[in-house]
Amino acid sequence: MAERSFGTLPRHRAVDDDVISHPAHDGGTPLDDRSLELLDFSRLRDAVAGRAVSDAARAALAAWRPFDDREACAAEVARLAEAIRRQREPGDWLETGPGSLTGRLESEEPLDGPGLIAVQRWLEAAEATRGCWTDDEARGRAPALAAVVDDLAPPRGLASRLAGALDADGRVRDSASPELRRTRAAVAGGARKLEQQLQRWAQAFGPDAYVTRHAERFVALVPAAGFPRRRGIVHDVSNSGQSLFVEPLEACAENNRLIELRAAADEEERRVLRALAAEVLAAAPALAALEQTLAHLDTLRARARWAVEFGAVTLAPGGARLALRDARHPLLAMGAERSFAGRDVVPLDLVLGEPGDGGPGRLLLVSGPNMGGKTVLLKTVGLAAVCARAAFPFPAAEGGAVPWIETLVVDLGDEQSVERGLSTFAAHLRNLSQMAAAAGPETLVLCDELGAGTDPEEGGALARALIEHVAARGSWGVVTTHLGSLKRLGGEVPGVVNGSLAFDEETLTPLYRFLPGVPGASHALSVAGRLGFPEPLLERARTLTPESARALERLTAELAAAIREAREEREVMERARAEAEAAAADHREATETARRELAERRRVVAREGEALLGRARELWQTVQREARRQDKSREGAERLRAAVHEVEREVEQLAAADGEAAAAPLPADQLVPGRRVRVLDLGVTAEIVSGPDGEGRVALRRGNWSIQSRVDRLAASAEPEGEPARGVAGTWTAPETAAVEVDLRGMEVSDALGALDGGLDQAIRAGLTELRVVHGIGRGVLRAAVEKHLRSHPQVAEQRMGGVGEGGRGVTVARLR
């Protein structure tokens, strides 16, 4: 797999402040810290670092740099894309340990119990992380991340040895060694024996005497008055002076023995800790690699968390276009800044590239009034290129593209320096010189207010020369300007395209929406009037403005207005098309849902028909056996045979309803009393008694049956109108589809009883008299639970074991009330 690095990425060579070099000599100006700072990359980096969990990941992100190697960058972008997708799914996919594992291993302080527990937590985190990636489906969705997880190789058995030897707070367990277990047991036993001995001894000095410890020795607190000093060693006196801490002479030997045992236990604890620490230090290289892998995953998770929170995506550098869709500056996305007048952030749509690659040109010249968002646009484009090379998420819609930018030169803000003797214009010239030297196909130049700071004519000439030079070398760039002479370059210099930010002519406020291909008017005089500039001075300024300049401003404003109207019309058409497509999709979904429901209904009808037919055949076989055995009369058997045949005929009608279910329902105006119709969901023919009411209900009659149905369930009948509908007495309201049996095999008892209740409810609503409960034989646990549940059910009259042909002991038949 591709090499990974984080935090300590190979740094670019620093920019020399005094020497301007050419890419033909040394490969170009790197992405230096100054450029990254001007584009607010450090603030984005800090925000992402705050979402990391481990110290190592936070430190790595705080010092993160763009990648130098293209393959390594592409591999990291692929991992980040998978991390963002995985972060949107439920469940954890990474765990880390506390603190800095490498810092503990490299510390001069010896590893104590808490330090070893911290090492154990890192080992457990590695095992837990590996456990999150055992599912083949999850690994298939994120193979690059799974490959990183596979690099986790915890030292075999070290975590279990640490867990077996240490408590959660780092205290050595008794089980850490046989010697420690024996010594601690001796200490505990000796302490109990000595405490009991002292309690008996202290009873002679009254009820206020009791046993305690002084330093490491067991003593008794006894009254000072009248105590014979020859009976023990006085170790201390209470604050009041009324009590003494006394060690009886006969307890001295046992106290001495306990102190020696405690010392031996302490020494054994230290030996165990030293052995564990030595084993950990011997595995230090593997542990350092483990921490680095988990920290790398933590940086990916932190970037993914930020991306999910602010709607960011990955941008893979490479290709011949710079295309951003619904892009926002990350700080604006986070709400750290707001646009002019507190307006919401307006996303940026921008496409640059050679005409043959689907773009208008590589160098964008943005003009328009101040406070219109030109600088934010410039920073957004630059930061998108930096994030692509740094494998950082960027707030934009999917489908964006960013070329590989090897060299970045930024001229932004006032960089005058008193110490170095640089004026504002001199500082700008220094940056422009770097742009000229670094110009090339993999260079991005970002210049704010090009040509400002000096005489407009000379500044414009210098700016034009630089733009022509940079465009001729195929550089990418975004340049903002107010100079009218530069606005014509979009149609005169190959590779240069105009752009502006929309401006409301009526309210004289910026709209922050980018308009490609249109130069922007400065509106300096209009904005000055809005801000309270004296009107006489404004009028004088208007008379001093050349007519050509005023005409250009008017033409630019009209063009911008026309493009804005065309864009609004296009947006209306796109919304209408989206609504039409959504309606068509809803219609397709409804059609598919109806098709699935019809297919499911057919399957239910067929399944129930088969079950009823099987029950009828079993019943007939049982009747025949009983008739032969008990010599029943032929007449009774024939009546039962006729009943069975009637059941079979009904089953056949249910099966025939499978083909009729697709019949189109009759219109409501054709449902008149006396007409014969087919009830689709019941598979029977009936006569309409009364037409549909306000809710679509229709009263039907089939023989002596009264049926309540609905308009959408009635179709034309295939039977002749004169043939009477057959049936039996009763009232029949179309029930829910109910099965004649409930299969509980393989379920837990609680789940099985819930399914049984559902089956009973459906059978009762459907008018069934019996329900077969299939529970299997097994160990009889499920059968016993079913029988107990049925005994207490209010709708069950009785129950019996399944007979021959019904499933035997594996089936319980419940007769319903």
Summarize the structure.
This protein is of the alpha/beta class.
Most strands sheet: 6 strands, mixed
DSSP helix count? 23
Q: How many domains in all?
A: 5
The CATH homology group name of the largest domain: P-loop containing nucleotide triphosphate hydrolases
The CATH topology of the largest domain is Rossmann fold
Distance between the termini: 70 Å
What is the spatial order of strands in the main beta sheet? 10-11-12-8-13-14
General description of the model:
The protein is of the alpha/beta class and 817 residues long. It folds into 5 domains: 161 residues, MutS, DNA mismatch repair protein, Chain A, domain 3; 103 residues, MutS, DNA mismatch repair protein, Chain A, domain 3, CATH 1.10.1420; 212 residues, P-loop containing nucleotide triphosphate hydrolases (Rossmann fold); 72 residues; 76 residues, Ribosomal Protein S8, Chain: A, domain 1, CATH 3.30.1370.110. Helices cover 47% and strands 16% of the residues. The protein contains 23 helices and 24 strands. The strands form 6 sheets. Strands 10-11-12-8-13-14 form a 6-stranded mixed sheet, with helices on both faces. The protein has a 6-stranded mixed sheet with strand order 19-15-16-17-18-20. Helix 7 crosses helix 10. It is flat. The two termini are 70 Å apart. The N terminus is likely disordered.
